[in-house]
Amino acid sequence: MPSLVVGDAVYLQTGDGTRFLALYTADERARGAVVLAHGPGLHPDHGITGELRVQLADRGFSTLSLQMPVLPAENDDGSAYRELYPEAARRTALVSHAMGSAMAYEYLRQNRGAPVFAWAALSFYGVFTEMAGAGFPILDLYGATDYRGVRGPASERAQILRGLPGSKQLAAPEGGRFLAGGEKAVLREVGAFLESAAR
Question: Is 2 inside a domain boundary?
């Protein structure tokens, strides 16, 4: 927090009383609000999530970047995070990256009527089968050389997206694992997608 330049640090509370950090960047003429969820073991201003929260605010969206539940560094196996999904489901996510996308999916799956106008799922691992018939568009964006678990099921995700108006799937040519190196494409595509969905 001492290095925070853009936005304000705020504390939110879940229904069970758990307090957690979030970074809020307001825009008085906001076209909409975007909630961001970072990847495993990170924080709400790290890497692409930090860039998105600032860049999207510059494009007219108020942003709220959530501190997602994290495990100690020695628990870097992604499967260990599954135990945190129920806690994460209490923290809404609309633009999510890597493990944050899995956590966002868990929230959306459990809260079918959530007031979500769009979901940008970055480097989603697996298939979001229960999003068929969702009442909002989804952007499925991943790196052309992303992990096999992200790229492999892309055709199955594309099939689900065909039934959701305004949805699209993109493989960022310069994006590597978890979209590393594809930051410019992510900022451009997520911004354009949210602007279109907010109309």
Answer: no
